[in-house]
Design a protein that fits this description.
274 residues; mainly alpha; Intermembrane phospholipid transport system permease protein MlaE; cell membrane; transmembrane helix; transmembrane
Amino acid sequence: MPAIWDWSLAVLNYLFNAISKFGRPFSNIIIKLGFACRFMLAILRHSPTSLLRFQLTMREIWFAGVLSVLIIAVSGLFVGMVLALQGFDTLQRFGATESLGILVALSLVRELGPVVGALLFASRAGSAITAEIGLMKATEQLAAMEMMAVNPIARVVAPRFWGGVISMPLLAAMFSAMGIFGGYLIGVKLLGLDEGAFWSQMQSAVDFRQDVINGVIKSVVFGIAISLIAVFEGYDAPPTAEGVSGATTRTVVTSSLVILALDFVLTAFMFRGI
C-alpha cells in the first residue's frame, strides 16, 4: 500500500511539474504585458514634462528620424522600381498598362509605405533606442539620475518615445513618395508609358481620406508600437552586455511581428468594412 501511495505521489508531482513548465511561459508573457501597460501609463504621465522641454524630443527626432532618412529613401526608391517592373508585366497581360500609376500609388500608400517603412524603422531606430537605454542602465546612469532626483522616464524614456512616434509617419510618407518616384522612373522613363496618363490616373484613383489618411493612421499606430517596444525592452534589459544584446534582438523581432499583426487588423477594419 505505501508503495502504491508513493507511486501516485510521484505521478502527481510529475504532472504538476509538467503543467507548471507548460504554463510558465504564458504567465511570464502576461506579467510582462502588464508591466508594459504600466510602463506606458508612466510614459504618458511624464510626457508633459518632457514635451515642455521640447529640445529633448527634437534631439530624439533627429536621432530616430533624420538619421533614418537615407535607408528609408533608398529602400522606397527601389521598392517602387521593382513594383513598377512587376506590375507592368502583370498589367500588360490584360492590356491595362496605363493603370501602372494606380497600382504603384495604392500599393505604396495603403500598404507597403507604412509596413516596410515601419520594419526598416524598427530595425534601424528601434534597435538603436533599445541599445542606448540598455547601456545607460548597464552603466548605472539611470540609477544615478534617480539618486539626483531626476526621473529617468521623464528625462530619457519619454523623449525617445515621442521622437519615434513623430518620426514614423514622416518616414512612411517619404518611403511612399520615393516609391512613387521610382515607379515613375521605370514606367515613364524606362518603359515609355505616357506621363500624363500615369499621373492623371493616379490622382483620380487615390482617395485622400480612404487611402492617404488610412495610411497615415497605420504609420502612427506602428510608430507607437515600435517606440513603446524599443524603450520598454531597453529599460527592462538586464544590466549586462548579453542582456542588452538580447533586448536589442527582442526589439527587432517583437516589433516586426507586432507590425504585421497590427497591419492585418487595421487593414481589416479600414478596407473591408468590418
